[in-house]
Amino acid sequence: MEEEYVLYFDGCSKGNPGVSGAGSVIYKNEKEIYAESTFVGGYETNNVAEYTGLIIGLGYAVNNKIQKLVVKGDSKLVIKQMNGEYKVNSLNIKAHYDKAKRLANEIPSLTFQHVYRYDNKRADTLANMGILTRGH
């Protein structure tokens, strides 16, 4: 049986821009193998937080040599930009997009799928936990 890896990511910003956190979770054959939450900043946008969640998850996948990955997130903007359907016009997120693309290019088989918020609860919880840590 082929191993299946799925990455869920999320970001949140209280105020947009405001206090922000990001979360990322990876499942291997439906079992959680990695979860991370991080404080993004005191005055960041939701899109920066979303990209941060994606980047930390992709970083883990690359560092652990995951060869095939399905990425799911509830940010239509991030998913469509990563799929090449939307251009990246905002200078605020260009560097984050570039970093995510560099990591994505290191994974041989990668797909991005949009999911609704209710299907992204674990990553959402982690993103909110990132706000609570405030860098501690």
Question: What does it look like?
Answer:
The chain is globular and about 45 Å long. Strands 3-2-1-4-5 form a 5-stranded mixed β-sheet. The chain has 136 residues and is α/β, with parallel strands linked by helices. It is built from 4 helices and 5 strands. A hairpin with a 2-residue loop joins strand 2 and strand 3 (31-44). The chain has one domain (5-133): Ribonuclease H-like superfamily/Ribonuclease H (Nucleotidyltransferase, domain 5). Helix 1 runs parallel beside helix 3 (91-104).
Q: What is the fold's blueprint, element by element?
A:
Layout: E1 5-14, E2 18-28, E3 31-44, H1 46-63, E4 68-73, H2 76-82, H3 91-104, E5 109-114, H4 121-133
Helix pairs in contact: 1-3
CATH topology: Nucleotidyltransferase, domain 5
Fourth-tier CATH superfamily name:
Ribonuclease H-like superfamily/Ribonuclease H
Shape: globular
Rg over C-alpha atoms, rounded to the nearest angstrom: 14 Å
The secondary structure category is alpha/beta
Q: How many individual helices?
A: 4
What strand line-up does the widest sheet have? 3-2-1-4-5
What's the count of strands? 5
- Spans of at least 5 consecutive residues whose pLDDT stays below 50 are none
Along the chain, the helix and strand elements come as EEEHEHHEH
Query: Main sheet, how many strands, which sense, barrel?
Result: 5 strands, mixed
Strand content: 25-35%
How many angstroms separate the termini?
41 Å
At CATH level 2, the architecture is: 2-Layer Sandwich
Helix content: 25-40%
Q: What is the CATH class name?
A: Alpha Beta
